[in-house]
């Protein structure tokens, strides 16, 4: 039996296939049990020792599992990483998908790393006692913010940007989450988003136990993507759909597709459009509506190709191209709804294999750092030729053209040139003029080509910061001929190569001195 999870929170017991279960099945801690050696079930209590961990405090009681804070029995020293232990409830009569989901999480979590997932510590097998020990994230989950929706728009945008960056990091590790919702998003003290609960996730390089053992779709009803409803579990853009649902709810106070409790209700999103956010909230900006409704497109190929590109739009609203989505103030008319229904009628799951890593590889973000004011015409030409060749080999790439307008460290900056023209605007125009010979022959539309003028006193730091914040995959920049002074002080290009964290290609006039490319470290 396969089923979808409730609107928020854990699930309990068996339900009809694809029925969305609500969070209201809290049990008393004394009733919670977990499988143990020599018996079908044993009660859990504070002070109990499981392998090398001692249970300290029950943090969460759900229908499928308990979460306890734990300590290591033989830990030495004053400092220790705060830990939690997740234990599945196996008294009997559980939804078998919940047991398989726990096995999936035990497989996937140890493969993950970085600040956007909890650190894996240990696990216990079902043959003895099943558990999963991981880092305890000190910050809160996003779930309580739903009660305050609609939120200030600045907060909605910030949440979206941080979660998109976390999803991109997860997708780079070959995992599609498939259960993105506020209760599965926590925040560290530095504000970075952390994704938890990988029981429904799929890893490119591990067996998909849920797909192998169950035929019906799984997920949390309000957040499931159309392709999940059809049984497709391998597309990272499913997570972008769920993020779009979450941002819609946080921004408007309403769910775009309601809270369906059966498969028929879930399938409505294959043809039913949500009410445009601007119809529910007068101050909703058109650019944000464009971004969110793009996330909620039925077809994955009409959404952002990657979470990194979604984050780039959220962090650079002036670069978002306003299309028909941005101008909507009401749902589509009857004729359009009928066409969508006919398109969706009989839709089936795709049969072609797909990998999260393939989607990211086909849609990289390429950054061209262009010194419009100081580079020679020959260098600008060679840099443009290199960028053209790179984008030509990556037909799904997004190109971000970046120039740095140098500002003074101390005192008032001269924001206009000797003719009284804005230096910022002048540099932006120059950047667009430089990129025009690339855009036209490669047919780069405005959704795949953006321009950014950064104002900074330190050009290298500004370039590196932009590359890191926007998850740039390949950075291309020009460098003038070497000099003893620049070798002594450190050139902009050498600092970028050392600090950027992505592949860097440095172009010199004649191709001299620097290697052609520096791979990501």
């Amino acid at each position: 039996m396969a089923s979808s999870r409730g609107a928020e929170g854990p699930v309990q017991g068996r339900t009809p296939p694809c029925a969305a279960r609500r969070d209201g099945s809290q049990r008393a801690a004394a009733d919670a049990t977990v499988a143990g050696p020599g018996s079908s079930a044993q009660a859990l209590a504070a002070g109990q020792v499981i392998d090398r961990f001692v249970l300290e405090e029950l943090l969460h009681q759900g229908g499928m599992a308990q979460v306890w804070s734990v300590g290591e029995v033989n830990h030495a020293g004053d400092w220790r990483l705060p830990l939690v232990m997740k234990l599945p409830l196996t008294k009997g009569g559980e939804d078998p998908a919940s047991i398989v989901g726990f096995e999936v999480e035990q497989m996937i979590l140890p493969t993950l790393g970085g600040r956007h997932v909890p650190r894996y510590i240990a696990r216990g097998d079902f043959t003895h006692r099943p558990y999963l020990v991981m880092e305890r994230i000190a910050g809160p989950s996003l779930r309580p913010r739903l009660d305050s929706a609609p939120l200030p728009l600045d907060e909605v945008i910030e949440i979206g940007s941080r979660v998109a960056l976390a999803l991109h990091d997860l997708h780079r590790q070959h995992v599609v989450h498939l259960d993105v919702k506020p209760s599965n998003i926590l925040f560290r003290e530095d504000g970075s988003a952390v994704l938890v609960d990988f029981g429904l996730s799929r890893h490119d390089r591990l067996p998909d136990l849920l797909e192998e053992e169950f035929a019906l779709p799984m997920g949390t009803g309000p957040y499931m993507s159309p392709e999940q409803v059809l049984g497709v579990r391998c597309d990272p853009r499913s997570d972008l759909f769920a993020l779009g649902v979450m941002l819609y709810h946080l921004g408007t106070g309403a769910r775009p597709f309601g809270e369906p409790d059966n498969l028929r209700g879930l399938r409505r999103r294959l043809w039913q459009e949500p009410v445009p956010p601007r119809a529910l909230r007068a101050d909703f900006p058109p650019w944000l509506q464009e971004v969110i409704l793009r996330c909620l497109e039925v077809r994955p190929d009409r959404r952002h190709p990657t979470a990194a590109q979604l984050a780039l739009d959220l962090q650079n609203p002036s670069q978002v191209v306003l299309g028909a989505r941005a101008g909507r103030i009401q749902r589509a008319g009857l004729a359009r709804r009928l066409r969508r229904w006919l398109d969706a009628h009989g839709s089936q799951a795709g049969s072609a294999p797909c990998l999260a890593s393939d989607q990211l590889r086909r849609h990289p973000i390429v950054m061209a750092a262009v010194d419009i004011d100081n580079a020679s015409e020959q260098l600008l030409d060679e840099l443009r030729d290199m960028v053209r060749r790179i984008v030509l080999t990556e037909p799904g790439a997004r190109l971000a053209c970046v120039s740095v307008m140098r500002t003074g460290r101390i005192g008032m900056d001269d924001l206009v040139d000797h003719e009284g023209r804005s230096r910022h605007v002048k540099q932006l125009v120059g950047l667009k003029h430089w990129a025009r010979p690339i855009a036209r022959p490669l047919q780069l539309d405005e959704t795949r080509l953006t321009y950014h003028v950064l104002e900074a006193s330190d050009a290298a730091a500004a370039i590196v910061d932009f590359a890191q914040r926007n998850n740039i995959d390949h950075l291309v920049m020009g460098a003038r001929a070497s000099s003893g002074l620049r070798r002594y002080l450190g050139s902009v290009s050498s600092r970028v190569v050392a600090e950027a964290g992505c592949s860097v290609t440095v172009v010199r006039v004649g191709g001299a001195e620097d290697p052609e490319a520096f791979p990501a470290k």
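The two ends are 45 Å apart (CA to CA). The first strand starts at residue 4 and ends at 5.
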